[in-house]
Amino acid sequence: MTGWALSLFRRELRLAVRVGGSAMVGVLFFLAVVTVIPFGVGPDLNLLGRIGPAILWIGALLATLLGLDRLFQADREDGALDLFLMSGRSLELLVLIKCLAHWMATGLPLVIAAPVLAIFLNLEPLAIGAVTLTLLVGTPALTLIGAVGASLTVSLRRGGLLLAVLVIPLAIPVLIFGVSSADAAIHDPVPFMTPFLILCALTLITAVIGPLASAAALRFSSD
Amino acid sequence: MAIWDYANPTRFLRLVQIILPWLIGLCVIAFAVGLYMTFYTTPDDYQQGATVKIMYIHVPAAWLAMMCYSVMTISSLGTLVWKHPLADVSAKAAAPIGAAFTFMSLVTGSLWGKPMWGTYWVWDARLTSVLVLFIMYLGLIALWRTMEDPIKAGKAAAILTLVGALNLPIIKFSVEWWNTLHQPASVMRMDGPTIDASMLIPLFVMAVAFTLLFFVLHLMAMRNEILRRRVRAMRLKAAATARPATVTATAQPAE
Predict the structure, then answer these.
(1) What value, to the nearest 5°, has the Cα angle with vertex A26 and ends A22 and A31?
(2) At how many degrees (to 10) do helices A159-187 and B125-146 cross?
(3) Is B83 left (phi over 0), alpha (psi -120 to 50) or beta?
(4) What ipTM goes with this model?
(5) What's the pLDDT tens digit per position in B161-186?
(6) Strand, helix or coil for residue A194
(7) Interface of A with B (CB under 8 A)
């Protein structure tokens, strides 16, 4: 079992980082979003320091959404999706592996970029650590929820916009607990661990629901 | 096996034809009684004055917004698990009604909030989660509208509805997590309702009236959807028989 899983994981990762993949574009978009926000709210460093964790989280959410529409669409176009469906492997596991590879290619770079971008936003070292940690825990949940939207809209010609509309409401709890645990680390009216553990729980829940729902949607989209 | 007897759309339509007039009559009576009580017999609140009467529209609408999603969730289970042929019709018909009730509860809530809280909108847990529910309704409707094949669209929307059903417990949970400006639930509580019977009875009557209104609209919308699908099937058939030669020549080059 591990043989095919590992080779699928490697294939996905290779496709994402080579020419035609879009692994680094997400980080560029993240940078662009974070750059644009001071133009909107003004260059006040105190204000930016206060809303910095929220800006980073929203930037990460938008960047994740941007990359999601290619999660299954490219496979559908070149026929790989039909091979996945007929391979007789567990489709849920297959989706999970694809999500993991997709997160490694698009989510992890966002987490790595976050401390650098946090400097632009005048965050304290403690806040930088907290935001990075919450992003590390929370962005897999965004990818896994997004996989549901990606598989529902896989057969549509312009699925990307609808995908964002469908996924954003479901991603709101992740955003809430991500930002509030980052805030709790800085201002500490509540202990950091409470929202952080709920964020971890949300990621684990989505790791079950995401692949299950996504695999069901892919099965229905094919027949 | 009563629910399977009405898997046949024709039999279902006949049932609707019998039930609907009675249901409409009951709905009109319930609204007449409820609105009369709301306007003439219920007392004004000593603090809020006459604005408290918005409650008799706002609270039932909010309840219905939740109930409608529950109906859609059950229908989605019917689509995916039991493959009941009318389940996706029911879910599709319920979505715009639920969106309308959600919108109504948001509008009446913000009109009530202006004199009470001094603002039309606060980013409080419950308001926010109802807004999220509204966006989810609109997303589901959009999903139905972008897929041409009604069967496929029904299955996709059913999956999304079930995933979204997880949002409902989070709504309740988020109220307890933030517990802010919006007052905590005062009717559905373990230690009994905290509002007086003179207000509770009209509220209950209005809730019944709204529920009846939902069922009237839902049955009507289901009937329309069945008829719409029949028209679609007839049109496809007519198009296929009209010019079969050209149809086969250009049929599906890519897929």
Answers:
(1) 145
(2) 160
(3) left
(4) 0.85
(5) 998 887 667 655 655 565 443 444 55
(6) helix
(7) 148, 152-153, 155-156, 162, 165-166, 168-170, 172-173, 176, 205, 209, 213, 216-217, 220-221
